[in-house]
Amino acid sequence: MLETKNYTDMVHSNFFQSEKDFNSALIAIYRPCTVDWGYTDGGTGQWHRSLFNADKNTYLIAGDLSTDILRSYQASDVYEHFQVRPSTGGPIEDVYYMIRFVAKATDVINRIQNSSGATEEIRNRYIAEAKTLRAFYMYVLLDWFGPVSVKLDPSTLFDNTIVPRPSYDDYIGYIESDLNDAVNTASFPDKYNDSPESWGRMSKSIAYAIQIRLYMHEKNWAKVKEVAENKLMKMGFSIIGNYKDLFIKSCTSEHIWSIPANSSLANYYVVETLPDDFKRGFNHKGWVYQHGDNDNALPGWAAFCMRWEFYDTFEDNDVRKETILCEYETIGGQIKNRANNNMVGPIGIKFTDNTGVNSTGISKEQPIIRYAEVLLSYAEAENELNNGPTSAAIDAVTQVTGRANTTIPASALVDRDSFRSFLLAERGRELFGEGQRRQDLIRHDEYIKRAKERGDKAEDYQVLYPIPQYVITEAGGVIEQNSGY
After folding, report:
1. What is the per-residue pLDDT for 264?
2. What does the angle CA 226 – CA 373 – CA 375 come to, to the nearest 5 degrees?
């Protein structure tokens, strides 16, 4: 009777014994996937930025600052001139840190597999969710660094032996294996669009969407088409009628994966892109946006804005242009715009509803993967596979342009190259500020080329970022640095 029982410590003997345990362990692996500033890793005590916070040092924004869409308010910004910030405290280190979350996912997968808690169906569902999340982190690492030495074997998790980076094909195989396992799990939910309480969790549709991103990265057009046409395009997703609603409403038929936000975990996208002297802004039709109310007009932090050259690619009747401010009034009453040369760049606020804004952040979710991206990827694959645009490709793109109140120009339908160029431009207009531009330009061999044309000090090898120097130093030659660094 007097034997002490500890109900607060989680140890192997009392954890991973129920669905509640599985859920608690899995939620911890989502920590980088928030709009909040960042997190402190319990294992190392280190603080790191979240992937989808709107700070210009995050995965969501940093890459796009080196493209033809976004720029820093400061012309000398390191990203704009392709001179990456040293690893300590910069985005390179934060994104590379996903390698630890791959290992964490491996541990959770292993412990759920070996648990007798809950039914096999429930265990398989949580394993599929963890594998989808692990595959996404591996894709993020591939996107920025190429193949890295991830730990996928649970028996090596506590082995400090440093191993070389895997081959490219092997690494792609790791991601494919996890995603294939996930989508073939019967108990893994297709999507959570009708389940707001689970919105933001990995699902079968997200796994398919990550597959498409992976295959677009590899230019594996046949697999892009297969997954898009036979899977995601048959799962009930559709383009919603109002573009602005994508950044106002949650769980629509177009959202595949979004990062939820609320008053406790606010989305800082708008305040990051507003100028620091901002009072209210105007789009090309004179619509007024004010962050806050008349008594509490909140300026921004002037982190990043759009480039005027990219703004010029929008037609005036394009409804997406209505979410971009091209003129603003300062707190002191001065009007700044392009004409008077006082406005660094247009303000792509995207989130046009300021209802309930009472602090610097907004309680609006951050879209990560939308059905529009799937349709545009499908069209690109169709174009490449058939040496030119097909009716199926045109129909897919028309769903996107139709909502935008634009059309595909006849010049884009002439041949494969013309349609390819149009798709690259259209993806920019549809997905600006959603973290896709860098990957798109690299795939089209335009990333470095356009940077050089802008006068940036870009080199061909900078399609990848450097492995953090501390990793190279600790490895003592076992881990090879990316070429050029």
Report:
1. 83
2. 50
Any idea what the Cα angle at residue 424 is, between residues 351 and 268, rounded to 5°? 20
What is the spatial distance between Cα 259 and Cα 428, in angstroms, rounded to a whole number? 21
Q: Report the candidate in 198, 101, 191, 193 with the shortest Cα–Cα distance to residue 152.
A: 101
Amino acid at 20: K
What's the pTM? 0.95
Q: Which residue has the tokens 């089209």?
A: 444
All residues at 6 or more sequence positions from 450 whose CB lies less than 8 Å from its CB, including other chains: 67, 68, 441
- How many of the other CB atoms lie within 10 Å of CB of 282? 17
Nearest to 427 by CA among 445, 405, 444: 444
Token representation of residue 371: 């059905």
- Class of residue 241 by CB neighbours under 10 A (exposed 0-12, middle 13-18, buried 19+): exposed
- Biggest alpha carbon–alpha carbon distance for the chain: 84
Strands 288-289 and 335-337: unpaired
Distance CA 251, CA 236 (A): 13
Per residue in 20-57, pLDDT (tens digit) is 999 999 999 999 999 999 999 888 889 999 999 999 99
Joined tokens for residue 189? 């939910």
Q: Which helix (H) or strand (E) holds 211?
A: helix 204-217
Contact 107, 154 (CB under 8 A): yes
Q: Tell me how far apart the alpha carbons of residues 351 and 248 are, in angstroms, rounded to a whole number.
A: 7
Instruction: Kindly report the number of other CB atoms within 10 A of residue 192's CB atom.
Output: 19
Amino acid at 108: V
pLDDT digit string, tens, across residues 176-198: 999 999 999 999 999 999 999 99
- Record the tokens describing residue 5, joined without a space: 């029982």
- C-alpha–C-alpha distance, residues 311 and 347, integer Å: 10
Cα angle 217, 220, 226; round to 5: 115
Burial (CB < 10 A; 0-12, 13-18, 19+), residue 96, is: buried
Residues contacting residue 2 through CB under 8 Å, at least 6 positions apart: none
What's the burial of 170, exposed, middle or buried (CB within 10 Å: 0-12/13-18/19+)?
exposed
Amino acid (1-letter code) at residue 379: A
